[in-house]
Amino acid sequence: MDTQDSQNATPRGSRESSSRGKLAFQILSVILVLLVAVLLRVYRIQDESLSRDELACANHLLQPGLIQYMISRAHDDPPEVLPLYFVAQYYWSNIVGPSPLAWRILPLASSLLTLLLLYDFGRRLQGHVAGLVTMLCASCSKLLIFESQELRMYGFTFFFGVLSVYALYRALYEGPRWWWGVHAVASACMAWTHILSLPLLVVFGVFLLATKWREFGLIVRWGIAAAVPVLAIPLYVLTAKETPPNDEMAWLPLPWRARFIDTFLYAFPGSKMDVFDPLAHAIGGVTAAIALAGVFALAGIWLVYRTVLAPPSDCPPDVRVRNREITLLLAIWLVLPPALLYVTSYIVRPCYIERYVYLAAFASYLGVGSAIALIPSRGLRAAAVTLLACLYALLCTDLVRPLRPDFLNGIAYVNENASPSDAFAATDINSRIPVNYYLKHGASPVVSPEEFPEHLIKAVNEGKQAWGVFYAEYPINAQEFEKKLQENGIASEVRVFPGWQDLRVYKLNRATVAPAG
Asked: For the whole prediction, is pTM greater than 0.85?
């Protein structure tokens, strides 16, 4: 009897030991990917400058009260920029003090929570491999790394958006019913964080109509719960500022067709932040980015094949139905929000840039993770994960330079070499506000791009030393600018500070030789 019990206990103990070992491996792999995500987000974070958009918030954080802060901030931000994140950021700044580096902890924390949520979402869809790959893609996405550091609402938008989809999945397929409440609260928080996250609610509505049309009462209840928080947004937008909101986002250009395509080709896979990102320092450059996009495309095809066209024969019927419906949800989530904002840009007003539609990218990460997990061969699964990790490793070498124009170091150079009597100029508001924030003496006046060269030339002709700053070929072309300086007998020294777009700092004086020509 004792011998038989011993023989029966050995396999059971072996299975328990194997199960514990498997769980430990899974936990360690999640910790490893999370550690990679943290390292990518804090690498050189101290060298990241505050951008014009960030200063629209940061310049007002020292106000004595929340109401004063919100009123003051409204002068720099359009009312469409909804308040939830900024309320949290104000109270966070009161806790950590006047430190831009400490301020960045709040969006960083929301990003890491999003990664953990994505892991559990992917794990529930297709197991540990799906969750891990989903987490890996989001961890290495350059735009998500950027937004994880930014003093703006996007980190909160992404967290609440992913939580809203996750809660909907739990409510529909796993329970308990209180996940409907989590879904409603997360959707409301998402909407009150960024107005252009509202297309995700359209995604939910389309998905429920397509898959749960027999449960009409459920759809009606969901619609009421989703609509009530949204109905108050127009009232806030119209009363938050005296000036009409329609002129606040006039800087946005109409999206061209190639930009829409590049969103799926580069921004969503994570190789570029936007269409203007040059990938100047990445090993493999555009070739690696195209290869990554190819992996995403193949994964999408394989996912449709394994969940819709040819599901595994041993897959239970209810799981087959769930997999088909989730694939449909991911497809709608991926395509509909960018398409809506693209069309709206032409019908109503321009509202399409990559970060406005990036919430849809998480659908592609869940899709890639699920597709790789559905590969039958363990060796092929490992090869697919390895290929994906290698491509991200190549592309992440682009992070050797700051993700923003490097005003921090560029203006530090000016501060070391300029005097209070010097003249200063930046090309536009996106440069002028950060320049004036970091400049210790003097300030850049409001100078249009067209007036920029003449303003500096006039200052030099008056006997002053002048400093000019800009960070992109638009609205100023460096060669044309330098040619105009030479034609007017102006000597220039230029320092280039690498970043998202290289920052060019010009030190100008009267030339000691006659001008050319």
From this structure: yes
